[in-house]
Specification:
Elements: E1 3-4, H1 10-19, E2 24-26, H2 33-41, E3 47-49, H3 58-67, E4 72-74, H4 79-87, E5 101-104, E6 136-137, E7 140-141, H5 155-162
Parallel strand pairs: 1-2, 2-3, 3-4, 4-5
Antiparallel strand pairs: 6-7
Helix pairs in contact: 2-3
Length: 163
């Protein structure tokens, strides 16, 4: 489907992208909006991997997404990522400057121990410190709808894991 960060640096990615038919996804070369613009200018990557923490939080992740003319990939591993993805501007698929989070990459969706959870997450995480597990409907992760990130932290679990 795609080739993730086969080499380091935007110029090297551009060389690879020009020589292969598989779309390239930048990861380690995509930290800031400036990086994203450089990748775009060099036609170095069809996609970039956006994590909420890598650029420095939700606002900077949104800046990354809005600097890009093509979609980003994201991992629905937390309420922050799902909130970010749902808030990323969407336009029609025919629009050249569409800025959308579209390709769920790694899917280690966490669940609360002892509750039924998604089987797509594999064994990456066996428990979470949220009080309620994430909800799913029709094969989609539902964005939590409470205040802030929409989650409540289980303080007893947090204390136990911190010990």
């Amino acid at each position: 489907m795609l080739c993730e960060q086969p080499v380091a640096g935007a110029s090297q990615l551009a060389r690879v992208a020009a020589r292969i038919s598989v779309p390239v996804m930048a990861d380690e070369s995509a930290w800031t909006p400036h990086d994203i613009l450089e990748l775009d200018q060099l036609n170095a990557a069809a996609y970039f991997s956006c994590y909420v923490t890598k650029p420095g939080g939700l606002w900077r992740a949104r800046q990354q997404a809005e600097a890009r003319r093509t979609p980003s990939a994201w991992s629905p591993t937390s309420a922050a990522r799902s909130s970010w993805a749902s808030a990323t501007r969407r336009t029609s698929t025919s629009a050249r400057r569409s800025r959308r989070a579209t390709l769920p990459s790694v899917c280690p969706v966490t669940t609360v121990a002892g509750t039924p959870g998604p089987s797509v997450a594999g064994v990456y995480y066996t428990d979470d410190v949220v009080a309620e597990p994430f909800r799913f409907a029709d094969g989609r992760l539902l964005v939590p709808d409470g205040p802030g990130l929409g989650i409540e932290v289980d303080r007893q679990k947090l204390a136990a894991y911190a010990a």
